[in-house]
Model the fold of this input.
Amino acid sequence: MGSNDTENRDDALRRILDRAIEDSADSPMDILAAVLGAAGEDQHSEELNLHGQVAGCWRLLRVIGVGGMGVTYEARDHDGVKAAVKVVGRVKAGSLARFEAECNSLEHLDHSGVVRYLGRGRLGSGKAFMVMEFVDGCHLGKLVEDLQEGNPNPVAESFKERAQG
Done:
């Protein structure tokens, strides 16, 4: 790749980022989703562009997480109940079986420290999804950052207290 190609690519990515920031609804995750989706380079680019689509009875609202297996959305049903919907992306062999095993395990768990499993299904595109209870909170990275920097954060303080016994 020549220097002009690199400059053109960098300019294109800057324009994508600028547009994503202008168009972004609320969160940094929305910006990330827009940039990765527009750039088309992320393994989950297709799953990052599902805003407004329906998964079962759940309308996908905004990206709240991106991981190795897929993308998690905040969603609402027709009654306004919130949920987290994980949509499986392009996965390697065996990943779909692990996803199914995760669903099966969560389906039988009932513990206050584990999110409640609400169901699973397939999108019109055939992609698998899982629905879990929505837990309002902040990103784990923010908690770690607050703990490292000594910033006040009630959840981080709770973790620190529990860790100290």
User: Anything to note?
Assistant: The chain has five helices and six strands. The first helix runs from residue 3 to 23. Confidence is low (pLDDT under 50) at residues 38-42.
